[in-house]
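Problem: given the chain below (157 residues), write out its structure.
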Amino acid sequence: MVNLKEGDKAPVFKGKDQHGKTVSLTDLKGKRVVLYFYPKDMTPGCTAQACNLRDNYSALTKKGYEVIGVSADSEQSHLKFIEKYELPFTLLADDDHKIVNLYGVWGEKQMMGRKYDGIHRTTFLINEKGVIDHIIKKPDTKNHTEEILELWSRKEA
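Solution.
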């Protein structure tokens, strides 16, 4: 399992978005990237997180941040999620787990005593040079944008 740290070069990913278009980290060179991994479209926590990012999207884009969400759901599932909640950012379908494995966020989880493999909710804040500035291992789904802005404002100070 990959164990990325702050200061590491962000692994270059490539995946299909909700429209089947290929998106790569290299396409985003020179931009700050909020790369957030979440377990599943349409679930309560994932919806709260996506809606928090949606509601504060203009604050993020004004600072030059590009938001990219990644889960193992299909392109069609992402499209429904985006349409239902009017999400203004890109979601990547990672049904083959290449991106989640590259970032080390796929692994054993436990819910109600049951163990299973899945995505660990994690956000990587990647700077313009492609370096990981911050890793948020357990994002506050309802206040995620505030966490992001706070971390990056400390970096700029």
